[in-house]
Amino acid sequence: MKRLISLLMVLILLMGVTACGSVEKENQIKEQEEEKIQIGMSFDSFVIERWQRDRDIFVSVAKELGAEVNVQNANGDVEEQKKQIDYFIQKGMDVIVIICIDSDSLQDSVKKAQDAGIKIIAYDRLIVDADVDLYISFDNAMVGTMMAEALIDEGLAGGKVVMLGGSPTDNNVPMVEGAFRKVMKDNQVTILASTHADGWKAEKASNFIYENPLVIANTDAIMCGNDDLATQVVRALAEKRKAGSILVVGQDADLAACQRIVEGTQVMTVYKPVEKLAARAAEASVALAKGEEIQGEDVTIMANGQYQIPYIGLEPIPVNRDNIDEVIIGSGFHLKEDVYLNVPAEMPQ
Ligand code: BGC
Questions:
Q1: What is the pTM of this model?
Q2: What are the φ and ψ backbone dihedral angles of 242, each rounded to 5 degrees?
Q3: What is the pLDDT of residue 18?
Q4: Looking at residue 91, what is its pLDDT?
Q5: Contact between 204 and 197 (Cβ < 8 Å)
Q6: DSSP 8-state secondary structure symbol assigned to residue 91
């Protein structure tokens, strides 16, 4: 009996020790989690195809580097985006990455976050006149030049174009359009009309086609702010049996745009390797969180209103019928069978 009691006591003791051990372990894990770098990311929306790719790559690279990412979607609502930034401040994030909806509206939010010791990255779109810790994007002027040059290569010099641009509150839009207009001017192209799709809503672009038949009958080309606008524009043109006879350009290399390029209803798109942008931004976020300076050959300093800010500008790549196999399929951005879905006979072997 005595032996049994002492055996039981030993067992109870052992159980206690293991329980203590597991509590300790749990606490350790908790501490490690808390010590992890915390990144908040506020997106404009996920309606446009590219942003899901941006998110997935950013999150996976940040994770590999030992950070945690809290992703929020503001659904095109500026006030919601401000609330998300407030929430991130309250949570004590190390870094906040913002894809701003309105380039002119977040100066106070940025200041509030920075006063709380949080670093700010303006991702893809500049927050104008704010002292952000990094602005990282593709060279937007280059995007506009590439669109314009593709049209000139197709014989537009001396002709007519309509510009159906993106959101007027997105600072990328005037950069793209400014560069586009310059090439048009240098080549004596007349801009018949220029409008903008508020909130990047594509139906604004197709409505222009429906509501302005005379302008459309008269134009040689349409510059679309991105491929999502181009999708609606080409659909509207198809209803008028004009798809393919008016030159259309866009940007983002959305799958639908790549399909139109091989089908002949869109002349070109601008491929922006968002993998590079997202991965570089994730690395930079972790460096900033560790208190390091953003360094590298790709970093320059640019003026942003009254501030000087670090800028990383990546190069976009123009894509047309001649290089789509190499650039888009070769890089794995889209699959060959998806791009050639509607024209399998033309699929390269
Ligand atoms: C980006 C484009 C994108 C658009 C709509 C712009 O700021 O540069 O790639 O298509 O926003 O989301």
A1: 0.91
A2: -120, 0
A3: 55
A4: 98
A5: yes
A6: T
Q: Is the CB of 125 under 6 A from ligand 1?
A: yes
Yes or no: say if 221 and 162 are a contact pair by the CB < 8 Å rule: yes
Which ligand 1 atom lies nearest to the CA of residue 170?
A: 7
- Say if ligand 1 is within 6 A of residue 334 CB: no
Cβ 94 vs Cβ 40: under 8 Å = no
How many Å lie between the centroid of ligand 1 and the Cα of residue 54?
11
Q: What was the pLDDT predicted at 3?
A: 60
Average pLDDT over residues 147-167: 98
Tell me: pLDDT of 160 over 90: yes
Which ligand 1 atom minimizes the distance to the CA of 225?
Answer: 10
Average confidence score pLDDT of the chain: 94
50 lines ligand 1 (CB under 6 A): yes
DSSP states of 246-315 as a string? BEEE-SS--HHHHHHHHHTS--BEEE--HHHHHHHHHHHHHHHHTT----STTEEEEEETTEEEEEEEEP
**pLDDT one-digit tens code per residue, 223-257:** 999 999 999 999 999 999 999 999 999 999 999 99
Ligand 1 contact, 250 CB (< 6 A)? no
3-state secondary structure of 110: helix
- Three-class SS of residue 208? helix
Q: How far is the CA of 349 from the centre of ligand 1 (A)?
A: 33
Angle at alpha carbon of residue 205, lines to 199 and 209, rounded to 5° = 160
Identify the band that residue 24 occupies on the pLDDT scale cut at 50, 70 and 90: confident
> DSSP assignment of 49-73, as one string?
THHHHHHHHHHHHHHHTTEEEEEEE
Residue of minimum CA distance from atom 12 in ligand 1 = 48
The residue whose C-alpha atom lies closest to atom 6 belonging to ligand 1 is: 172
For the segment 264-285, the average pLDDT, to the nearest whole number, is 98
Pair 112, 100: CB distance under 8 Å: no
